[in-house]
């Protein structure tokens, strides 16, 4: 760091120190010197523990690698394998019967079911869009996507009445199912001034200006009546739009969807989080030749059926996702000269900022119950969950917050966590508010953990593997067993294709059928469409009817390609698919510092990609290379051919730097390292190499 200050023996970037002191600690009335002394003491305790946990990961992996090498070529003995995992402490005893004790959880998390957004915290405009996605226009969502399979294409520029009529008809069909009338259809409704006779009067909530507010499966529906509007004027009931309560919660992400590698990046992350929490975040941008300014939405005021005044939140309830235990950051150096564990820095800084909300020093407020919500990713097993629990205790003490103010979301995306999920939940049982599953990261860890066992099945086949089915079912079942229903979210992963909303509407209801009371979507529009699923299904009723939890055996089955002999064409096809996805994402991460964006896949379908994409693709290629399924020359051939394809896909970007014939370029070298050094990367993570090469790029 060229511009550093010293605080309690810590060398900290001066701008970051000033930000925390002037923008956070002083307005909160905290003693600055006492904070830095306490922070240094916290680091003296928890930085060594963090390091020990990472060493434990490496030790376990080395023992697993050795076991697989010794048994390579022999029939896999599942009982022997499980006994070995128990002996080395990879598997721990189940904690027995218990129920989580989390308190002061907001209803958006505990008792409501609905969509969840994840948004890169470095992009203020995206962050504002996501925070404001609590309410969304169903008409806009239908009109602007392929969600209605039989709706005619727009026949003209601007508004197309023919397509609009199909949208309006679909909106009426939705109302007939979600808020049925006493008789007839919403399609036949005339002038509503005399009232609207609905079958269940308890569904009527009140009136909002030009809207009537209803409730279905715990979610609000606002029907806007405006006969003077362009749409309402053509409607016999004067309905101008149907507004749905959409993204109940949003995760502001400091981790997989951002490229944050130094003090400059972390300062932007914390500044944006402060703006969201205080309620004064703004972002101006050019659109259609005009300058627009985006702000946080206010609350939705309404008059109840009894004439009293009420208000509903106008914004998503916000989580913040801290980074995991692995990475360090040069923003702060410890007294011994080492970099600060980034997850500890995030825990302290994001919680300090969130204290504005706890103490009521904000424009709008986030948690009505005085809680701070932190999602913690990439934890391996109950020891690491216990470490996070202790760390959050220490952060609460440092900031003078009541015990368990800081709640935690545990991402079940590492194999050691999946196999010990009950014990992981037990380790944070008084602050847990969220568990979820994620195919990409979890598959990356599945491959890396058993890297030495043999070649893995093709990536697409993973979705039908025994371990994955068990993983998805066990996550929900174990969460329910320990009392998460009605107290916490049980979530499912991202729908990655924002342009394929019609397909999402067919498939994503499967997450509700599996018992998830939230699931990730890639955009505010997708949140509005996915909200329709929660009107169709009462997830809490679904949870009551779920069957037995699968045992450990299928979860521990290794997806090896036993006896498979792929053709050269099949090998090339798999390598090309992995290489194209890897390069398409890496070039944006390294060259542009963009951690999440819509990246065209090998078939030119735009997918919302983050770092998990790299983990599965690079680990899969490294596995096949290790076991001789392919050669280095074949891998390099795919990488070079796919670099040309990615260049062509980005031809319209004037700032894009081509990779083809620039094989010494930083982005291409980073992609090569991710594959050729993939076996040796800790847990198969991509962060160490990405951060290394991004810092090279930023240094010019």
From TrEMBL:
Which residues belong to any copy of the Malate synthase N-terminal domain?
33-72
Write out the entry's keywords from A to Z: Acyltransferase, Cytoplasm, Glyoxylate bypass, Magnesium, Metal-binding, Oxidation, Transferase, Tricarboxylic acid cycle
State its location(s).
Cytoplasm
- State one molecular function term (GO): malate synthase activity
What Gene Ontology biological process does one annotation of this record name?
Answer: glyoxylate catabolic process
Q: Detail which positions bind acetyl-CoA.
A: 118, 125-126, 257, 294, 522
Name the active site residues: 321 (proton acceptor), 610 (proton donor)
Q: Identify the GO cellular component terms for this protein.
A: cytosol
Reactions catalysed, as given in the entry = glyoxylate + acetyl-CoA + H2O = (S)-malate + CoA + H(+)
Species name = Pontixanthobacter aquaemixtae
Query: What residues does glyoxylate bind to?
Result: 321, 413, 438-441
Chief location bin: cytoplasm
Q: Where is the Malate synthase G alpha-beta insertion domain?
A: 159-188
Q: Which sites bind Mg(2+)?
A: 413, 441
Residue ranges occupied by any Malate synthase C-terminal domain in the UniProt entry: 570-675
Which cofactors are reported in the record for this sequence? Mg(2+)
Q: Which residues carry this modification: Cysteine sulfenic acid (-SOH)?
A: 596
Function according to Swiss-Prot or TrEMBL: Involved in the glycolate utilization. Catalyzes the condensation and subsequent hydrolysis of acetyl-coenzyme A (acetyl-CoA) and glyoxylate to form malate and CoA.
**Subunit details for this protein?**
Monomer.
Tell me the ranges covered by the Malate synthase TIM barrel domain, including all copies.
318-546
List the transmembrane segments: none
Question: What's the name of the protein?
Answer: Malate synthase G
């Amino acid at each position: 760091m060229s511009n550093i200050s010293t605080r309690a023996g810590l060398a900290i970037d001066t701008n970051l120190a000033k930000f925390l002191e002037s923008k956070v600690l002083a307005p909160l009335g905290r003693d600055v010197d006492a904070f830095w002394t306490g922070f240094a003491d916290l680091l003296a305790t928890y930085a060594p523990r963090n390091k020990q946990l990472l060493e434990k990961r490496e030790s376990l992996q080395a023992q697993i690698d050795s076991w697989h090498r010794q048994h390579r070529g022999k029939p896999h003995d599942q009982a022997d394998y499980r006994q070995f995992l128990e002996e080395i402490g990879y598997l721990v005893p189940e904690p027995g019967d218990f129920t989580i004790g989390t308190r002061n959880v907001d209803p958006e998390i505990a008792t409501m079911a609905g969509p969840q957004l994840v948004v890169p915290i470095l992009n203020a405009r995206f962050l504002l869009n996501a925070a404001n996605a609590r309410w969304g226009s169903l008409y806009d969502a239908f009109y602007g996507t392929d969600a209605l399979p039989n709706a005619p294409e727009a026949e003209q520029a601007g508004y197309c009445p023919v397509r609009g009529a199909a949208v309006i008809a679909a909106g009426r069909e939705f109302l007939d199912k979600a808020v049925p009338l006493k008789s007839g259809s919403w399609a036949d409704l005339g002038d509503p001034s005399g009232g609207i006779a609905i079958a269940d009067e308890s569904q009527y909530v009140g009136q909002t200006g030009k809207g009537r507010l209803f409730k279905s499966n715990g979610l609000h529906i606002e029907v806007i009546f405006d006969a003077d509007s362009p749409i309402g004027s053509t409607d016999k009931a004067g309905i101008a739009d149907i507004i749905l309560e959409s993204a109940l919660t949003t995760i502001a992400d400091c981790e997989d969807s951002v490229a944050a590698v130094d003090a400059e990046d972390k300062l932007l992350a914390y500044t944006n989080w402060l703006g969201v929490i205080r309620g004064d975040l703004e972002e101006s941008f050019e659109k259609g030749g005009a300058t627009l300014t985006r702000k946080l939405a206010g609350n939705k005021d309404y008059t109840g059926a009894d004439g009293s005044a009420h208000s509903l939140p106008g914004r998503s309830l916000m989580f913040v996702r801290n980074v995991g235990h692995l990475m360090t950051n040069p923003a702060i150096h410890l007294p011994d000269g080492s970099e600060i564990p980034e997850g500890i820095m995030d825990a302290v800084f994001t919680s300090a900022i969130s204290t504005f909300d706890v103490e009521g020093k904000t424009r709008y407020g986030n948690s009505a119950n005085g809680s701070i919500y932190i999602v913690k990713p990439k934890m391996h097993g109950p020891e690491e969950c216990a470490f996070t629990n202790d760390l959050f205790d220490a952060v609460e003490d440092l900031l003078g917050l009541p015990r368990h103010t800081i709640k935690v979301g545990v991402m079940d995306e590492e194999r050691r966590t999946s196999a010990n999920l009950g014990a992981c939940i037990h380790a944070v049982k008084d602050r847990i508010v969220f568990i979820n599953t994620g195919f990409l990261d979890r598959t990356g860890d599945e491959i890396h953990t058993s890297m030495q066992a043999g070649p893995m099945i093709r990536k697409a086949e993973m979705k039908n593997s025994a371990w994955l089915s068990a993983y998805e079912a066990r996550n929900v079942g174990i969460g329910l067993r320990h009392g998460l229903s009605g107290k916490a979210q049980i979530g499912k992963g991202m729908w990655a294709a924002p342009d394929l909303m019609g397909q999402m509407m067919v498939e994503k209801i499967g997450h509700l059928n599996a018992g998830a009371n939230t699931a990730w979507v890639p955009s505010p529009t997708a949140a509005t469409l996915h909200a329709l699923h929660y009107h169709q299904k009462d997830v809490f009723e679904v949870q009551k009817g779920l069957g037995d939890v699968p045992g450990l055996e299928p979860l521990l089955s290794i997806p090896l390609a036993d006896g498979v002999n792929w053709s050269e064409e099949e090998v090339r096809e798999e390598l090309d698919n992995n290489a194209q996805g890897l390069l398409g994402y890496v070039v944006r991460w390294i060259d542009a510092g963009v951690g999440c964006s819509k990246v065209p896949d090998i078939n030119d379908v735009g997918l919302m990609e983050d770092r998990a994409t790299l983990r599965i693709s690079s680990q899969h290629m490294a596995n096949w290379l290790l076991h001789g399924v392919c050669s280095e020359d074949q891998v390099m051939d795919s990488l070079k051919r796919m670099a040309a394809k990615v260049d062509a896909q980005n031809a319209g970007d004037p700032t894009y730097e081509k990779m083809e014939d620039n094989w010494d370029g930083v982005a291409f070298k980073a992609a090569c390292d991710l594959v050729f050094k993939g076996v040796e990367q800790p847990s198969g993570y991509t962060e160490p190499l990405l951060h290394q090469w991004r810092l090279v790029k930023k240094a010019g």
